[in-house]
Amino acid sequence: MASAVVAQRAQAPEEQAGAQAPAATIDGFHLVLEALKLNGIDTLFALPGIPITDLTRMAQGEGLRVISFRHEQHAGNAAAAAGFLTRKPGVCLTVSAPGFLNGLTALANATTNCFPMILISGSSEREIVDLQQGDYEEMDQLAVAKPLCKAAYRVLHAQDIGIGVARAIRSALSGRPGGVYLDLPAKLFAQTMEAEAGRRSLVKVVDPAPAQRPAPEAVVRALDVLRSARRPLVILGKGAAYAQVDAHIRELIEKTGMPYLPMSMAKGLLPDDHPQSAAAARSYVLQEADVVLLVGARLNWLLSHGKGKTWGGAPKKFVQIDISPTEMDSNVAIGAPLVGDVGSCVQALLEGMEANWTRPSAEWLGAIAERRDKNLAKMAATLAADAVPMNFHGALGVVRNIVRERPDIVLVNEGANTLDFARSIVDMYQPRKRLDVGTWGIMGIGMGFAVAAAVTTGKPVIAVEGDSAFGFSGMEVETICRYELPVCVVVFNNNGVYRGTDKNLGGGKDVAPTVFVKGARYDRMIEAFGGVGVHATTPAELEQGIRQALASGRPTLINAVIDETAGTESGRITSLNPTAAKK
Question: What's the pTM?
Answer without folding.
Answer: 0.94
